[in-house]
Amino acid sequence: MSNYHIKNLEEYFQVYRKSVRDPENFWEEIAEENFLWRKRWDKVLEYDLSKPEVSWYKGAKLNITENCIDRHIYSRGDKTAIIFEPNDPSEKAEHITYKQLHERVCKFANVLLDQGVQKGDRVCIYLPMIPELAVSLLACARIGAIHSVVFAGFSSTALHTRINDADCKIVITSDGSYRGNKTIDLKGIVDEALESCPNVKTVLVAKRINSKITMKPNRDKWLQPLLDDAYHDCVPVIMDAEDPLFILYTSGSTGKPKGMVHTIAGYMVFTAYTFKNVFQYRENDVYWCTADIGWVTGHSYIVYGPLANGATTVLFEGVPSHPDFGRFWEVIQKHEVNQFYTAPTAIRALAKERLNFSEKYNLSSLKILGSVGEPINEEAWHWYNDNIGKKNCPIVDTWWQTETGGIMISPIPYATPTIPTYATLPLPGVQPALMDENGDELKGNLVSGRLCIKFPWPGMARTIWGNHDRYRDTYFSAYSNKYFTGDGALRDSTGYYRITGRVDDVIIVSGHNLGTAPIEDAINEHPAVAESAIVGFPHDVKGNALYGFVILKEFGETRVHDNLRNEINQIITEHIGPIAKLDKIQFTTGLPKTRSGKIMRRILRKIAENQTSNLGDISTLLNPEIVQEIMDGAIK
Ligand code: ATP
Ligand code: MG
Asked: Looking at the predicted complex, does its ipTM rise above 0.85?
């Protein structure tokens, strides 16, 4: 079906125009021809963005697991659905076929039913990247329970806040997890979290690391014996299109996490459609997204999007640096991966290492490379393109958010010509708008402003769990009848979008609005620089001035720092202009990052402003220890 699978630029424009002219018809055809419905919808779209209330496929009935599993059993029953690649390369990979996935999901669903979980109940999942994680999501969806996955690197405080916010009655976890050469005591973290979660009555524990743990009587149960006894089939609960599928808290780069609620039908259609097009998935391809299922990228593009397309998706337990920095490339060679989707933070970390890690492996199976999570800077883009893609694989720089459910702006491989640092064009059905400070839409090209979406799309979140007012205030109040993304972007002369960073991070220097991404991109061009982050600090004359935190590559450390400072400002002057020169440049060995690997600029801002007594919530930081080092080295 041509609407579903775009093959060239002309077709993209044709389909895109159609999707804007008549969005309902566009999304209706896609839904009609590519999914299994138990009852057809009464209305494709109903919306009022002032409230905001949005429903897609209203009146339709379905179960998403029938779409992700059951319907593939006849045509692809013995095809591998999930390849599980363990943390330790010497442990055997596991290939789970669609038939086996069906049985595992049904058994798990029956266990949940036995434990009293009912349609609409919230289930907290705090598991490492093992098959049970994907299976548990689908098992919830099978019986209409709402899953709330919490990334298994979060602390007990972050966990109990999320459990209580969603009022979960049951937690699924494991005895522990592997992370490189370390193990993490997940069960211990859960025990600590549950001290302040009175409503959790049951904890199901998967065995992964065989550590000695204490099981609390009447509350904690080993999962495996229950699965062994469970019946192998489970009738799917038929759900309404707009019933919630899951709650997922945003990554926490900017402040208190928000429990975004996604509903079944629209999310399914949107993730399936975007997966198919952005990764140009073909029947026997092996697709690998390195994200954790604890993030939206894992929900949409490890589990739901790929499985709805009957794809083979890799589930990787490990980390890019264990046993060495060749691990990603080894896995690509081993499973002959065709599409590879990762984050700029991983690319930058790997690009810092010697090249022979990637040169050792045969990467010729690769067809498409993807990036998500942060702006990918030009240097990292080229490294990825040259050394991994061998200049032969289109790079899809995909811009989207937890709130959007799926990819919004991205090249379509072989159709959209790519340019480094540009997410390029909106996918069909996505209508971006750039807004100026007065709340007016900037028309035409060569403009830069705040990125909004001016028409509903099926994958959009419907609310924040338990706090619809916050949902409205955060996303729909800045500009009337538009979803405000919180990001800034520019549209170039050809209509391509470049994300310039978060609007909160925009710094006004002498009256000029400066986005963080283009400046960091310029700094990272310096051969001695591995990574950088800039923030503003108050300045008597300019209003604000720029403070740069810069990580050097190994050889950069031996250079005279003042010379480096001059060279960095030279590059900024060449790329952007003297207005963007940095007043202060601090060299550091690390930057504060969220657990999803994003730079947390608000902490750097406090340090630059010398307001270190109140750093705010740092519980979602991956590397809290770096904060002290940076404070000690701060330039006053
Ligand atoms: P929080 O909303 O809690 O502060 P977060 O915004 O980091 O956390 P996510 O929903 O995981 O949570 O991330 C979405 C954000 O990541 C986008 O708004 C954007 O700032 C950034 N982002 C994602 N992909 C890209 C990309 N391809 N290019 C530039 N920025 C991106
Ligand atoms: Mg966000």
From this structure: yes
